[in-house]
Amino acid sequence: MRPLRILIGADTFPPDVNGAARFAERLASGLAGRGHDVHVVAPSPDATAHREPTRPGADGVRVHRVRSHRYPLHETFRVCLPWQASPATAALVADLAPDVVHVQAHFVVGRGTAVAASRAGVPLVATNHFMPENLFGHARVPAALQQAAARWAWRDLARVFSRASVVTAPTERAAGLLADAAGIDGVLPISCGIDSARYAGGVESSTPTVLFVGRLDEEKRVDELLRAVAALPTGLGARLEIVGDGSRRAAWTALAGELGLAERVMFHGFVDETTLVEAYRRCTVFAMPGIAELQSLVTLEAMSAGKPVVAADAMALPHLVRPGRNGWLYTPGDVEGLAAALGALLADPATRARMGAASREIVAGHALDATLDRFEEVYARAAGRVEMPVRAA
C-alpha cells in the first residue's frame, strides 16, 4: 500500500500516563515505522501551542500541541478550550491535507479534529477509549446525577462519532457497549496491541509481591486491593507495589496506614518505562480491580511478562483473564474473594508458573503488528484505496 499521511487526534498523549495515551503513542510510532507520514494533534503539557521536535525513537512522528490549561479539580489533568482547539485543529487539517484522520476521543481535541475532517471531506476513523466512570471522579459528579450524566455523555459521543465512516473499540465487549449505550452499530473490535517481547525476562522477587499499575482514581478500586492484601495470611509476608498516580493517592495512602500496611505497600507514583518493565518482571501476581476497563493495556503488559492475573469480573477484563487458565476473576466488591485468589497464587509457585505461561500464550493474540495491520486495512478502506472487509483483531 502506498504510504498514507495520517493525522491522529488525541485528547491525551505522552507525557500523560494512561492507557489511551500509551496506545496513541504506540499506534503513531508503529505506523510511522511502516513508512507512513504520521502527525498527532494533542493538548500541550504546558500553556503553549507548538510543534514538538521529532523525538528520538519516535520513528518520525510529528506532534502538534494545542494550547491547554490546568484543570483545577485534578493535579495532573489538562484541558483545551473549544474556542482555541477548534480553529487550531481546523487549520492543521487544512495545512496537512491528510489522507485519513483517526480520532481517539470525542472530547475537545478529538471533536475539533473530527469536525474539521468532516467539513474538509477527509475520511474519518474514530476509536473509543471512554467510559463515563473514567471522568466522574475528575468532574466531581454527585452519585445521584451519575446515571443522567452518563446518558448525556454517550449521546454526546454518538454525535461526534456519527461523522466517522469507521468506528473501532479495543474489544468485543467495548464494541457492544458502544452499540448499547451510544446506539453505534457495526463497531469493529480491534485490540490495542502489545509488543510483548519488551516485557519478557527478568527474575521474580524472593518476596511475594502483588503489583497494580494504573491511575489512582475511584473506578480503579485500589481500596479493595489494599483491604484484600491486609486480609492475606501473615505468614505469606506479601507486599503490594502500586505504580501510578491520581486523585485518590492521598486517601489510599492513608488507608494503607490504617490497615497496618504502611511497611508493606509501596506507592511509586509515575515511573519511566524501564522502571515499569522491571516492576512487571519482579512481581509475583498482577492485580487489576478496576471496573471500567475497555481493554487494560497494563494487564496485557503484565501478561507479556508471564504473570498470572487476578482481575475484577467487569467490562473487558474477562477477555484477558481465563479463570483457572491464566488467573482468576472475582466479583467487584468481594474483598474476601480477591484475597482468596491472591493468597492461593502467592502460595503456589507451580500454579503461578503454569498460569504465567498461559498468559504469554493468550497475549500472543494481541500482537502489535496485527493491530497495525488492521488499522492499515481500516485506513485503506476509509480512504477508498481498496474495497475489502476489515477483520477484527
Automatic annotation (TrEMBL):
Enzyme Commission number, as recorded: 2.4.-.-
Keyword Transferase carried by entry: yes
InterPro entries on file: Glyco_trans_1 (IPR001296), Glyco_trans_4-like_N (IPR028098), Glycosyltransferase_grp1 (IPR050194)
Residue span(s) of domain Glycosyltransferase subfamily 4-like N-terminal: 17-198
Residue ranges occupied by any Glycosyl transferase family domain in the UniProt entry: 204-361
One Pfam family this sequence matches: Glyco_transf_4
Molecular function GO labels: glycosyltransferase activity
Top-rank taxon, per record: Bacteria
Keywords: Glycosyltransferase, Transferase
Descriptive protein name: Glycosyltransferase
